[in-house]
Amino acid sequence: MLDVRNVDLSFGSARVLRSVSILCQPGKVTCLLGRNGVGKSSLLRAIVGQHAINAGAILWQGEDIARLGAAERARAGIGYVPQGRDIFPLLTVRENLETGFAALPRAERTIPEEIFDLFPVLRDMLSRRGGDLSGGQQQQLAIARALVMRPRLLVLDEPTEGIQPSIIKEIETVIGLLRDRGEMAIVLVEQYFEFARDLADLFAVMDRGEIVMAGDRARMLEEEADVRRHLTV
């Protein structure tokens, strides 16, 4: 579904990504692992259209979307949950969810009931302002907002960052449920091996803007020591 091929990305004279390639398939979770500052978030932003690449291709359902803007990619079925969540603190939970309508045809601008099955806490907080929610609740809201768009590719940037363990487990369960339906491809950035180990079907480890290890979950487990070495400071 998503095929990133030999992508280069630079900011001025600083080369951030060097010939990076990853594959994301329906019904599978692809985990990007690595220390801070190695290019993981930059790669996700390139996929969703927030950074223009210098070379390579980003194929979405067989078509190169590298020249499309972020809004066009969202309308094509790419949902994004950024690092730090970026919810609107002065809008209510309902209004935050409704911002996902922008990528949908008018006839589809409804909040699916499934959202509240996945995140029951949000049902009781629809009238509360986003800024009044805890960090974990805001992360659930950010994921729910992306799901309102009915994405076929869900891109998550460090969904466990700053979240209490109980909600991390809930988020892990939701990602697993979405994956197991077989209709959505999921790519996520993660620094914690245990979270990636429990979810990843495919993995790629980044260092200094390059993919230095990649494979399926079996290889990640077989080479756990090497993977962990690339996660430690």
Topology:
Elements: E1 2-11, E2 14-24, E3 29-33, H1 40-48, E4 55-60, E5 63-64, H2 70-75, E6 78-81, H3 93-98, H4 114-118, H5 120-123, H6 135-148, E7 153-157, H7 165-180, E8 185-190, H8 193-199, E9 202-207, E10 210-216, H9 217-222, H10 224-229
Parallel strand pairs: 3-8, 3-9, 6-7, 7-8
Antiparallel strand pairs: 1-2, 1-4, 4-5, 9-10
Tell me the name of the CATH class.
Answer: Alpha Beta
Query: Strand order within the widest sheet?
Result: 6-7-8-3-9-10
In helices, the fraction of residues equals 25-40%
Q: Give the overall silhouette.
A: globular
CATH topology: Rossmann fold
The secondary-structure class comes to: alpha/beta
Biggest sheet statistics: 6 strands, mixed
How many beta-strand elements? 10
Integer tally of domains: 1
SSE run:
EEEHEEHEHHHHEHEHEEHH
Spatial separation of the terminal alpha carbons: 33 Å
Alpha-carbon Rg, integer: 17 Å
Structure description:
This protein is an alpha/beta fold and 233 residues long. The chain has a single domain (2-86, 151-229), classed as P-loop containing nucleotide triphosphate hydrolases (Rossmann fold), CATH 3.40.50. Helix content is 34%, strand content 27%. The chain contains ten helices and ten strands. The strands form two sheets. It has a six-stranded mixed β-sheet with strand order 6-7-8-3-9-10, sandwiched between helices. The two termini are 33 Å apart. The model has no long low-confidence stretch (mean pLDDT 95).
